[in-house]
Amino acid sequence: xxxxxxxxDPPTWWERxxxxxxxxxxxxxxxxxxxxxxxxxxxxxxxxxxLGRLPGWTAALLAATLAGxxxxxxxxxxxxxxNRSRAWNVEQAGWILIxxxxxxxxxVVVQNFPHSQFSWGQGVMFVAMAATRVIALHLMARRTRxxxxxxxxxxxxxxxxxxxxx
Length: 166
Fold this sequence. Notes:
Elements: H1 13-19, H2 23-38, H3 56-78, H4 84-112, H5 117-165
């Protein structure tokens, strides 16, 4: 297997980034959201011709969705919280917002420039990547909960054996 394996336990933020290169999609979402967030305040500035056609409030909402989702995904991914479940929930919420933001972007591009496959295809691929990470986080949380139930059941049965022998 050629996956990066962190050398620290818990991994450092840099090792988490190396383990999960999808972090760059989240980082780009923050940057894209920030750039788009400037457009309502500077009408001459348009980060994308398609998005330049959006009303200011819609652009601001899309900007907040992308930047907020990207920020949450980065925080959830790079933190060193002991409560991994909380970290996974924060990250998962971020990826859901990222998927919503990039799906909206792709929809707007398809509506305005349907022949710009590169532009709307980028949005569709970011949605697919975000959805894949949401599924992975769900499966990791489910597997962890099942393992914790096994550990608790084993500890309970061990305690019952000890109690019977006393």
